[in-house]
Amino acid sequence: MRVRNLGFVCGVLLSLAMALPAFGQGAPGTAFVPGSAPLAGNMAPAVPPLPSPQFGPWPGVSPYGPALDQHFVERGLWQRRTATHERRYYIGLDYLTGQSKEPKGILGNPHAMSYIETIDLANLDTVDDGDTLAQQIQLFEDLGRHGLYTRLNLEGLGKMKVWGLRFHWGYDNPDDSGFMLRAWFSQDRDFFYNRTDQVHASRGRQQALLEEILRTPVNELDPTTFIPRDVTTLAPLYRPLDLNEILQNNLLNLNGLPLDDGTLQKLPDGTYAGGVTVPFDLEFRVDYNVETWGGSLNWMSTPIVRRSWLRVRPLVGIRYLQLRERLRFTGRDSGLTYGEDAGSESNADVKIHSIPNHFDENRDFVIDNAGFDETTQQPQGQQQQGQQATVPSVPFIQFRDPLLSPFPITSFLENDIRSHLAGPEIGLQYDIGGMRFKISGHTKFAFVANHTRAWMDGDNIAMITRDADLLPQTPEEARPNRFSDKDTHTTVSPLFEQSIFAELPIFGALPVIRRVPILQDATFRVGYTFLAVGLVARPSESIVWQGNPREGLFPYIKMDRSTWTASYWSFALDWQY
Predict the structure, then answer these.
(1) What pLDDT does 138 receive?
(2) CA distance 469 to 481
């Protein structure tokens, strides 16, 4: 009886199942819509909004899938790489400190005669073997680099230290391709040379008084003061000051400027003869300035080498670099000739000094006297042994009337060169390490268009001790010996840059610093960058040093190109967001 009832129930359920519609996954390409069964009565079924076709069943895309799903072949095997993160951005600011390539060569014409040779040649007819000037010339020739008015070698001025700032911003895509923007600025730290810094501290302290003495006009009522005159005869006007002491203590043995005055020539054997070296006994200063401005845009492809600890990516981009360099020379001279042989127009170039050893051998309270050599001669007025000597009397001759040719005379030359470099670059970007410690860097090569502009300005570049070399001042022309020049060139220059950085997330471990909000997520980065640019015109190497205004000879620009380099240490803060 029970068996018959069970069979009846099963048959009824099977009939109902076959009569009612089934709900489930539809055919391929159709979406399952829950709740679409017909309702009781005549009410239509409630159909909710359909989801996007993108989110359908397989093989559709899930909204929770990876941002990157990549298949690639590595070492002969198919590999799969997925990444769930989106594009990562980073930004940072570097402080730069380092050095730039210092100027090169001799300031002036390197083939011109030295000052010793200049006064020796100019006075051959008036000097014999027993003359004091001949003895002085031989003495300073034996001293070599400690001679009279030596030329300045710019390469011996030391390293040109620079500082600057660099900004960078960029991003990395999930597939490790990326983009980088860099911009930077740097300049020198007051690079200059002042020869008066190397003389004894007691020398040159009365420059204002000395210049007043030099400008004192000739007394037309006193025939003894006519040109040429010994300025020590002005002593009654400056009592109780000792005029000899003032002159000997404030006229200095500084550097000389070698020039081609029209007499320089190259001999058949390859040597040079002629030229002059201009002496400066009041001031000799060289200022050199360098500034760089630049930027680069780089696109990095997916890695060509990828390991768990190494990533190497090729990069391409464009670069701009502006290099500004300026050289300024300033020299001032008294216009006096002095020494025991002074007194004739043929000796107007002669300025005798004691050996610059910073000792007061004759105990006259003037160290390294101007006008004579205290190491080999006893000064006039020497008292008994053991007592202080008086300052000896030395002729200081002025050949120009201060009203017509005012002295001191100032000579200067300024050469300013700006190079604009722009072009494409290629290279490699590499990263080594992980999240806690990473070393990164790049190597770049470029060939850039180099557009160079140069400006020169100056005055009184000549043998200023000789009236015959200078144009006279007139009411219509107050600066007849002034000159200027300019030049423009465009060429192609090779460029190389190498950088390496170490990233350290140290701020999170510092007790106080880690509480500063802006530093909580910052990374400290230290690095080194070396930059070299070939075929760059530099101001110290692009001057033809000639000077004789009477003969129409003035300095001018002649671009001479060489390699410019700079190296920087950088200290930076980086943020990722």
Answers:
(1) 64
(2) 10
Token readout for 313 is 């990516």
Residue 378 backbone dihedrals phi, psi, to 5 degrees: -85, 130
Asked whether the whole model's pTM tops 0.70, one would answer: yes
| Contact predicate 544/556, CB 8 Å | yes
Distances (CA, A) of 63 to 85, 88, 264: 14, 20, 85
Among residues 315, 91, 313, the alpha carbon closest in space to that of 182 is found at 91
Give the chain's residues under pLDDT 70: 1-75, 79-85, 121-146, 340-346, 376-389, 435, 508
Strand partners, 94: 166, 572
Taking residue 460's Cβ as centre, other Cβ atoms within 10 Å add up to 24
| 295: β partners | 183, 320
80-107 pLDDT per residue, tens: 666 666 788 999 999 999 999 999 899 9
Nearest to 462 by CA among 551, 522, 561: 551
Q: Residues 506, 524: contact at Cβ < 8 Å?
A: yes
Nearest residue to 491 (alpha-carbon basis) of 437, 535, 436, 425? 535
Task: Return the pLDDT at 8.
Answer: 58
Residues with Cβ < 8 Å from 392, sequence gap 6 or more? 244, 364, 369, 371, 372, 379, 380, 381
In sequence order, the β-bridge partners of residue 171 are: 89, 179
